[in-house]
Amino acid sequence: MPTDLSSTLYALARLLLGGAFVVFAIRNYLVNVPRLTGIIENKVPNARLIVLAGIGLQFIGGLLSAIGPWQALGGVLMIVFLVIATLLFHPMWKYSGADRAPHTVATLMNTSLCGAFLLLVAGGV
Q1: For position 51, what pLDDT does the model report?
Q2: Could you tell me which of 119, 5, 3, 9 has the C-alpha nearest to residue 65?
Q3: pTM of the model
Q4: Tell me, what DSSP letter sits at residue 3?
Q5: What was the pLDDT predicted at 1?
């Protein structure tokens, strides 16, 4: 049975985790659309549309994770976002040497974030 403290900590964790992605999405929309589009324009058709859809997924998934009764759906959306972002922007297996290091870090970070969002999908601890 959850205590008041564990419920409060769980709500705070959701707010911090999901809220960060809301902020990232806003920043990406306002500042990074051209740069992100340029990175994937040779990888996918309609790169700008894909980037905008990803930012929307990031925003909605983060918001649903942070608040309200739809945390599981938010967690699923964020896992989808993180997997796609890793495949498009950080395919570490395509790099070698020093070029591989930042993509390896990003892949590991995204993998760990998927674990955090799986906790939301599972309904917490």
Answers
A1: 98
A2: 119
A3: 0.91
A4: -
A5: 55
